[in-house]
């Protein structure tokens, strides 16, 4: 017996006090409705309604069971709603990743927007390089991510492209900081600080190729990821670093480093 459907019939008859009106409300004929009520009474072992040719009256047992029936129907609807949300991707667990160079402000904005749009979805957020994210996708350990392109995206569905202005981080006091825009050739003589090539090989190679085409071939390429480490390399070893405008390597009013496009 479909208990939920039978309880829907019971509640409809109880609220309408009329089999005809209850049948119309449920979109069914009256004889099947009467059969379902009798079947429910047999299943529960109690009489739910007193019937005469003119009226239908709920019994004391029916009155006592009505609240329980309504609660069960509400729970059933809640279950259906939850199932629909899971099916439509609005509930459950989303495994996501962001690259380490994303600024704190950007992370906060993304999280706030996510919570506003997907309040019922649990977010498991990781800080992973492009290479680590691609490995996570291949192993089915990640659902979404923010990667640096170009890279091998075979088998992935791409979303919106986020474009970020790339610039150079210089020690404050370097002569190039006097320029509004720093041509690559003006960096001649400085070592270059980049992320490890394994993190995003194609992006790494593209950056070095662009530098060479712009007239800048660094004497040495140093590798760093952590903000403090990269800052230390730039400040103490005659190096510069490339980073987006919203890089977390430089803070507003930074006394030590300057970002220039």
| Percent range of helical residues | 40-55%
The major beta sheet can be summarized as: 5 strands, mixed
Number of strands: 10
* Strand and helix order: HHHEEHEHEHEEEHEHEE
Domain count: 3
Radius of gyration: 33 Å
Shape: rod-shaped
Report what the structure shows:
A five-stranded mixed β-sheet has the order 8-7-9-6-10, covered by helices on one side. It has a three-stranded parallel β-sheet with strand order 4-3-5, with no helix packed on it. It has a two-stranded antiparallel ribbon with strand order 1-2. It is an alpha/beta fold and 261 residues long. The chain starts with a helix and ends with a strand. The protein is built from eight helices and ten strands. The chain has three domains: 3-87, Arc Repressor Mutant, subunit A (Orthogonal Bundle); 92-145, Periplasmic binding protein-like II (D-Maltodextrin-Binding Protein, domain 2, 3-Layer(aba) Sandwich); 166-260, Periplasmic binding protein-like II (D-Maltodextrin-Binding Protein, domain 2, 3-Layer(aba) Sandwich), CATH 3.40.190.10. Helix 1 crosses helix 2, helix 1 packs across helix 3 (30-44) and helix 1 packs across helix 4. The radius of gyration is 33 Å and the shape is rod-shaped.
């Amino acid at each position: 017996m479909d208990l939920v459907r039978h309880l829907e019939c019971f509640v409809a008859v109880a609220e309408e006090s009329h089999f005809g009106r209850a049948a119309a409300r449920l979109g069914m004929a009256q004889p099947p409705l009467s059969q379902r009520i009798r079947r429910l009474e047999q299943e529960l072992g109690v009489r739910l309604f007193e019937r005469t040719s003119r009226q239908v009256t709920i019994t004391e047992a029916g009155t006592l069971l009505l609240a329980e029936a309504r609660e069960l129907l509400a729970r059933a609807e809640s279950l259906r709603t939850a199932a629909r949300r899971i099916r439509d991707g609005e509930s459950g667990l989303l495994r996501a990743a962001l690259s380490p160079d994303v600024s704190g402000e950007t992370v906060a904005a993304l999280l706030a927007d996510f919570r506003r749009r997907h309040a019922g979805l649990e977010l498991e957020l990781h800080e992973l390089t492009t290479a680590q994210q691609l490995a996570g996708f291949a192993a089915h350990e990640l659902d979404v991510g923010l990667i640096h392109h170009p890279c091998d995206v075979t088998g992935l569905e791409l979303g919106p492209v986020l474009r970020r202005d790339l610039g150079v981080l210089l020690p404050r006091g370097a002569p190039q900081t006097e320029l509004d825009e720093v041509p690559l050739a003006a960096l001649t003589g400085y070592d270059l600080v980049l992320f490890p090539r394994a993190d995003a090989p194609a992006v790494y190679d593209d950056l070095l190729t662009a530098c060479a085409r712009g007239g800048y071939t660094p004497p040495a390429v140093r590798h760093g990821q952590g903000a403090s480490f990269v800052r230390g390399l730039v400040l103490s070893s005659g190096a510069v670093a490339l980073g987006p405008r919203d890089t977390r390597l430089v803070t507003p009013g930074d006394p030590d480093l300057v970002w220039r496009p």
